[in-house]
Amino acid sequence: MSNRSRAVSSVVSTVLLVAVVVVLAATVSVFALGVTEEIRSPPPAVSDSSAEYLTGSTTCDTDIVRLTHAAGDAVDLSETRTVVRLPDSGGTEATITGFPTDGSTLDADEHDDPDDILYSGGCVGGEADGGSGGSGRWSVGTSFSFKLNSGGGTGDIDPGDTIEVLVVHDPSNAVVVEHSIVVTE
Fold first, then answer.
1. pLDDT at position 6, please?
2. Half-sphere exposure of 33 (CA within 13 A, CB side)
3. Residue in 80, 86, 88, 67 with CA at minimum distance from that of residue 174
4. pLDDT (0 to 100) of residue 34
5. Which CATH architecture has domain 46-182?
6. Which strand (E) or helix (H) includes residue 177?
């Protein structure tokens, strides 16, 4: 009977030893491989939105890009960056990082625009314009807009050109909205 008890003890001790090794290996791998840093909160889900390129006759109603939220989660614009690409103008690109602004003008720290695509002197509107009643939360039924630079330079837009606009949620680094607008006028 004592031989039988020893056999059970060695099996139990082997199982316990394997369990301890597995737990230690999992703990070490989490810290050593940085797995915990990869876990992020999910981005807001904008299931439907629209984008339009507006032309008009006054400064703030021509060369305007307006994005309208139609369905899905609300997006805090201060947690986003808006990327604007003009593939037909030599692949130029600009990024707006400062929504919502405290007015309708983009300050130097609110955009990265080496190709002079954006008109930063005004015309930011809707939910992105914190100084004119915009809440900074892009939710269903609301819009935000900005103006492209129509003065000479690489930001010129011609009929048939494409404007690509991406709204990226910074905490998750996920693209929540992507539009390609073909200019008709």
1. 55
2. 9
3. 80
4. 62
5. Sandwich (2.60)
6. strand 174-182
